Structures are given as C-alpha cells and as structure tokens.
C-alpha cells in the first residue's frame, strides 16, 4: 500500500531531518563526540534517550545514504496516491484525533484484552525458537540469542490485559496523533522530507512512551548503553557496547565502526552495501 510506504518512510527515513541543535554532529548534551568511534555511539545513545530518533539516524547514516533516502522520498511523492488508501488513512487519523477518541478506542479494545494476553504469551514463547536458526546462520554473537530470550521473558510478563494501562497507552497514542496533525495520506505525501521527519519524531516518542506503560522502558535501556573501544586499525575500530535491556542483566554486543571522511559509522556487511540491497 502506497500510504503505508509513506508512513514507513516517515518513521524510518529520518536521518536528513534538520532539527537545529539537536541534530548537530558535534558534542551532545549527554556527552559523546562524533570524532571518535565510541564517542559517536555515546552521542547516538543520547539521541535515543532523548527521543530524537531523527538525530540518531542522521548521525548513523553516511551522507550518500542520506541522499538516497531523500531521493526515495521524492520519488514516492511523485507516485499517485490511490483514493481508497487516502480514505483509509483519513479514517485512521480521524479515529485517533476525534473528541473522545480515547474512550471510543478503549471500548473497541477492551473486549479483546484477555485474548491479547494469551497471544503475547505465545509470541514470547515462540520468539527465541524462531530466532535461534536465523541467529546461528547469520553468525551473530552467542549473546544475541540470550538477549532474544531475555526480551521474550520480559514480553511474557507484560500485563496487556490491565485496563488502566490500556487506557493510559491509548491516551499517549491519541496525543501523539493530534500532535502529528496530518489528516490524510495526500497531506502526508505533500510534506517535504524534513517536515515528514519531524512528524516521525513525534510518532517515535509516542510509541516509546506507550510501551513504557507496560514496563518496556526504552528510556532506561538507552540510559544504560555504554561503548568501549577494544581496538583500532586505521579507519576501522572494534567497539564493545553494553546494554541492560529493560533493567535486566547487562549484556555486551560487538560493533565494528569505520571512519569515512573524518566521521565514524557502523560498518555494514558487503551484502547490505550492495546496490539495491538497502532498499
């Protein structure tokens, strides 16, 4: 669906957003400098902790990739938007932003909360098993599966059937939708790349805040992130990142960084860097 692609792009193609000081590439208010591999990651963690997903992605993506994203947004704008998709978008945003939307949405989800609790339990139990094969084939560190299992255990403990929490999460989502202030897919399509990125920042913050209601506190997770350089060789550095997922035991993840034009970025696999693979 074209409208869905617009929304996905607005959520993911954030790197080129301006954002004033928050998007600067120097030293962040929480520490970190883009001049060093560990400093770049520390600055990126600071952006995540402060819900500046646009600034985070701007820091992490090299200029050619940012330009590609802008070009793809422009190409998406040129494609005609189907009336049915636009109508569906209008209906969704109208439902989220209408007077009394919070009560209306809760009345819709309340009968399904008990079933949702069962479903999330099933997903939490199956996730590690489904991920095990893919992790093994990818050659990811052994701790990766442990982290997936940790997340699964956290998901299993979520009280999704709690009505008070449901009301609070719905209120957060509705508030974000009102702040986004886009009523139709056609209106979304007319936004400049930079305008769309600002809207996506609001959406990202809303999602993070809504998940925190259920104990999935990304703020706490991002605050726990730390980076330490293990070794450097020319324009390549091996960095160890430690993180406590949702307040649980800290785990470490290796990250390879590479320097391009004086700045450090996470190194991509050759398959990811091949033409057409990143699309």
Describe the 3D structure:
By secondary structure, the chain is an alpha+beta fold. It contains 13 helices and four strands. The protein has helices at 2-12, 37-49, 53-60, 63-78, 83-97, 101-109, 113-138, 143-156, 163-180, 185-190, 193-213, 218-224, 270-273; strands spanning 226-233, 236-244, 250-260, 263-266. Strands 1-2-3-4 form a four-stranded antiparallel sheet, sandwiched between helices. Helix 1 packs across helix 11, helix 6 (101-109) packs across helix 9 and helix 9 (163-180) runs antiparallel to helix 11. Residues 1-31 and 274-279 have low confidence and may be disordered.
How do the SSEs run, as a string of H and E? Answer: HHHHHHHHHHHHEEEEH
SS element count, helices:
13
* pLDDT averaged residue by residue: 80
Low-confidence stretches: 1-31, 274-279
**Nearest-angstrom radius of gyration?**
20 Å
**For the terminal residues, how far apart are their CA atoms?**
16 Å
Briefly note the structural class of the backbone.
alpha+beta
Strand content: 5-15%
Could you tell me the number of beta strands? 4
Helix content: 55-70%
How does the major sheet shape up? 4 strands, antiparallel
Order of strands in the sheet with most strands: 1-2-3-4
Bulk shape: globular
